[in-house]
Amino acid sequence: MEKLPLEQCHWIDEVHDGVRYGLQGEVLIDEKSAFQKITVIESKRYGTSLLLDGCWMTAEKQEKHYHECLVHPALCSSQQLKSILIIGGGDGGTARECLRYHEVEHLDLVEIDARVVEISKKYLPHIGGKAWTDTRLNLKITDGINWVKAASDESYDVILVDSSDPTGPAQGLFNRDFYKECRRILKQGGVFATQSESPESFRQIHIDTVKLIRELFDHADPLYGWVPMYPSGWWSWTFAAVDKPRYLHPILSRSKEVSKNCEIWSTNWQQGAFAAIPAFIERELKL
Amino acid sequence: MEKLPLEQCHWIDEVHDGVRYGLQGEVLIDEKSAFQKITVIESKRYGTSLLLDGCWMTAEKQEKHYHECLVHPALCSSQQLKSILIIGGGDGGTARECLRYHEVEHLDLVEIDARVVEISKKYLPHIGGKAWTDTRLNLKITDGINWVKAASDESYDVILVDSSDPTGPAQGLFNRDFYKECRRILKQGGVFATQSESPESFRQIHIDTVKLIRELFDHADPLYGWVPMYPSGWWSWTFAAVDKPRYLHPILSRSKEVSKNCEIWSTNWQQGAFAAIPAFIERELKL
């Protein structure tokens, strides 16, 4: 495809509460699936980029900021890694990072919208990469809420919720019933993790999410990083475990396998980032 | 002033390399000073906000993200706090945070552009707050480069460079000659700190700045945080010291005085944040 000169490109923005973040580029696809509006652009700065319902989801040159921070603190600290569940994550990036661990035997990727997977495979093939052809991957196009309800007790070593914001199809992934089911199906030595929104742009949702997960699991803590294309650029993930806060302590023999190719994540980064709780959040979580 | 309904407000954007960050609001002032274009808007989301040469500088409801991270790691760890120098910082926020320490006896605030100070006092009075009438403040409207050249050896306990990006009037604040002068005028037990750009949007400038400061001072380390209105939202500050990396270790008796009113900064946050070096930066700094 021939590229337009930059000055002829459009701005594609996500607008949130009087703030906008835009990338200059060409729209490649803009369609409505059964669940949401799906837009793909070719951006100058971050390569091919995906929006769902007008919100930035991922981009070729920005996806590691998000996927590494969701995946590695969980997979480096869970006692075992035989069986992994991803809810959402239809772009394949979370699955790709998980499947870098040779200990993973089976990965259920449960995405509600088949078009997100089809479009990601076609326009963002490097995000899923080898995951799409990995024999350990079990892709299920179905509702993640029903999937966790139907799953057996203590059946997963790691559960990762890789969802969009709590409106539209992801609404049911931010509430007590869903998290309770996740706790039920998590193994004793396992780790649960979810993206937990921006502490700046979705402050109350973020704090309520951390508090709720902390109440339902015995241990839970937020981790903060940077995803420039998400509202405010300041993003969070929340990790939980049943037996002890094992997500704070990466297993070093395992982390060596993955850290070499990472942009953001390292065991050093993770341990610092868990300690670096902004003052207002530390106060809120003590209430 | 009567406020326009949001739908009648304009978007005011900073554009950088195919990315834009915009706030919806009304333009209050837009003028050219002797040094730069100065714009003030009333934004819906972050209150009154300042741009210099089209780049976001600060906003009433976002300034603590920046000022706390520049000031407190330095002032909480310098051996003494008698004499402080701020280069830039014409909005007064850095001075305000410094003057919260009763140990500070004298603070030179050296800003090149008188209009930035005048406009900040008028439109953003809460950012400078009580600093503007504090008898310890010595406001000098002059070139910071000449100021440091003329200063005596080892004359400041803390030096803070609170500048805009390295183009326009701030260009001379990001080079070897300037940092060498800063090292010369810093006391033995003192701390130097500068904003050091975004590791995402200005990656090479950031890394070069950290390496240069590390070469000239005996100890230097970057710290990462979040300023949503700056390019990528991911921002950095670099701290340096001559005798030991004392900026890593806040003096707890002193930090108690300031931590109560902070949004982001706390001793816990600081110690975690210094440890949380993203993997690609850790690799670059080892080269």
Tell me the span between the first and last alpha carbons of chain A: 55 Å
Give the helix level of chain A as a range of percent: 25-40%
Mean pLDDT rating of chain A: 95
Query: What does the oligomeric state look like here?
Result: homodimer
Secondary-structure element pattern of chain A, one letter each: EEEEEHEHEHHEHEHEHEEHHH
Largest sheet of chain A: 7 strands, mixed
Low-confidence stretches of chain A: none
| Structural class based on helices, strands and sheet pairing of chain A | alpha/beta
The CATH C-level name of the largest domain in chain A is Alpha Beta
What name does the CATH topology of the largest domain in chain A carry?
A: Rossmann fold
What is the helix tally of chain A?
Answer: 10
Query: What Rg of chain A do the Cα atoms give?
Result: 18 Å
Count of distinct strands of chain A: 12
Give the domain tally of chain A.
2
Instruction: Please name the fourth-level CATH homologous superfamily of the largest domain in chain A.
Output: Vaccinia Virus protein VP39
CATH architecture name of the largest domain in chain A = 3-Layer(aba) Sandwich
Q: What strand order characterises the main sheet of chain A?
A: 8-7-6-9-10-12-11
Question: Which chain pair shows the most residues in contact?
Answer: A-B, 44 and 44 residues
What percentage of amino acids of chain A are in beta strands?
25-35%
User: Overall 3D geometry of chain A?
Assistant: globular
